[in-house]
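Hey L., structure's done. Input below.
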Amino acid sequence: MDIQKIGIVGAGQMGNGIAHVMSLAGYDVLLNDISAETLAAAVALIDQNMERQVSRDKISADDKASAMARISTTQELAEIGPSDLIIEAATEKEPIKQQIFDALLPHLEPHTILTSNTSSISITRLASRTDRPEKFMGFHFMNPVPIMQLVELIRGIATDAPTYDACKKVVDKLGKTAASAEDFPAFIVNRILMPMINEAVYTLYEGVGNVQSIDSSMKLGANHPMGPLELADFIGLDTCLAIMNVLHDGLADTKYRPCPLLTKYVEAGWLGRKTQRGFYDYRGDVPIPTR
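Output:
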């Protein structure tokens, strides 16, 4: 099928990044969120990020103007129903995702493909709640979307070949690289990445090193561009905890048990950059380790 109109549910960090790259690639984008303030902030951020690309000669001013004109917003979920492709990019909580798909079903066209940007939740299980499991799959972008080149494509047990091929064409048009992953908890990237972050938190919890020494060790000793605790703050500690819980519950292996310190930070509301405090305190001019 020829995908032209893309609906995106959720205008947060991932949703606005997906809208950014889709509009630049020539797709008409309808961005949905329950909050008018979140939608306004998302459009402003997309404009700001595209302006940065213009200043760095990544895109032209005309490219930016055309892309921004292709982005529309709505607070009504029903309005994105007629899209050719819908990408759910809400919070990483399965009940919320299921509620979204339940609400969308009466408004979909027969050809509409449903996808989720989930980073860990079973695609087969999400698809089973819909009327089109064969037209449902995982479409997992990496953060920050405009910069990261990988997109994980995850088939559920019922996903058909035309659906996969249509999503693969979109990834190709974006100029990104698709990695095909099987429908197991956390797929490929987070199956490997999150246990590493969790182990870094255990290393902090057990007093093996402090925040600065752990991050410096991995940056200088393993050539990682960001330390694992810095990366956890960037991702969001609530998201890290949610993914570790999916791994622990789905694979029933104690090696995936979330570190109690990670749980404590989330319970305190210290979620990382988005709340200005996590393993670092971001309220000053320079981030300061909190332990």
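The CA atoms of residues 5 and 26 lie 10 Å apart. The chain has a mean pLDDT of 97.

-- N.
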